Amino acid sequence: MIKEIEKIEEIIEYYAGERNPKEQENLVAMLREIQEVEGYIPKEAQEKAAEKIGIKTTVLSCIIQRYPSLKGENYGHEIVLCSGARCGCKGGPEIIDAVKKELKIGKDGISANRKVHVVIRNCLKQCKTSPNMMIDGKLYSGLTVEKALEIVRKL
User: Whose CA is closest to 141, among 124, 119, 118?
Assistant: First the structure.
């Protein structure tokens, strides 16, 4: 639900009136401004922007997915799980599966309670201390399934 509807509409109007409103650079700038107002980019705002600019909503959804700084959901925490080779041979896949199951992660990477976003990254560049997980920018290393679940349950 959009809280600041007038501000959002003003932002959309501004970018729709730009010389090349469909260019990725303009779309990203518009999405960032909307996020500054709301804290994330609500679906309603994505739909209004897509309609006004004359693009499909899926274009904006793809941009939001490609830019880690953009949030398409109002989640409170982001968990990044490592799927790199070293983490993989030390139990990383089991940790990924356990965390996803515990939080009931959907295909969109969002937990059932809509409070956690899970991302799988090929490597967190912390191979010496694998397996690794990052929560809201804080690294957790040398994990087991049990340790990872204990940390995740505290969120």
Answer: 124
Q: Are residues 117 and 140 in the same domain?
A: yes
Residues 27 and 53 in one domain: yes
Is the model's pLDDT at 4 over the cut of 90? no
Name the amino acid, one letter, at 119.
V
- Evaluate whether residue 71 is within a structural domain: no
ω into residue 93 within 30 of 0, thus cis? no
Structure confidence by residue, pLDDT tens digits, 51-102: 999 999 999 999 998 898 899 888 999 999 999 999 999 999 999 999 999 9
- The boundaries of the domain holding residue 28 are 5-66
Angle between helices 57-66 and 24-38 (to 10 degrees): 80
